[in-house]
Amino acid sequence: MEPLEILVIYGSVRHHRQGIRAARFLVAECVARGHRATLIDPAEEQLPLLDRMYKEYEPGQAPEGLERLAGRIKAADAFIVVSGEYNHSIPPALSNLLDHFLEEYFWRPSAIACYSAGPFGGVRAAMQLRAMLCELGTPSIPSLLPVPAVQDAFDDEGRPKDEAYRRRAGRFLGELEWYANALKAARRGGVPY
């Protein structure tokens, strides 16, 4: 199996954000499995509030940061979206980042890792995110990777405090790999339009 290009898209820009640890963990786990993984962090991307989608710019006229991010998305084989739960929904920074693009996601699978400070691990946000990702053309795999009490699950570098996370992530990533390889092979034969 050849290495995959995987984007780990994180969703929070809050000052004391804890979910970045889960995102770092997933990047490291993807790399350990032989893939190329890149963290997309809205705090670093600094996208403006959505006014114009990438596709609404004339070719070559999009702002440099938007152009660079579009290229990364187009080159990806799969996406892992790491989302907290804000008021039973997804963070606004994540929605803003995702909504800047559309066709760039098409024909590639996504996977949802969700988290919260409490016991439910962000699964309510994941259900809303599942519908959104499908609408964007990057349907999510059936499995989720919920992380309850995210503040206690990983250290600052993303190393798990409980090794069970590596086992759970292994199953989660194995499923994403299967879908990513299947869709990658199908894209080589052409897409519906």
UniProtKB/TrEMBL annotation:
Q: Which UniProt keywords apply?
A: Oxidoreductase
Top EC class, one word: oxidoreductase
**Transmembrane portions of the chain:** none
Cellular component terms (Gene Ontology): cytosol
Quote one Gene Ontology molecular function term: oxidoreductase activity
Q: InterPro entries, from UniProt?
A: Flavoprotein-like_sf, FMN_Rdtase-like_dom, NAD(P)H-dep_reductase
Under Pfam families, the record lists: FMN_red
Domain of life of the native organism: Bacteria
Enzyme Commission number: 1.7.-.-
> Carries keyword Oxidoreductase?
yes
Q: In what residue span(s) does the NADPH-dependent FMN reductase-like domain sit?
A: 5-145
Protein name, per record: FMN-dependent NADPH-azoreductase
Q: Which organism is it from?
A: Aquisphaera giovannonii
**Gene name, Swiss-Prot/TrEMBL:** azr_1
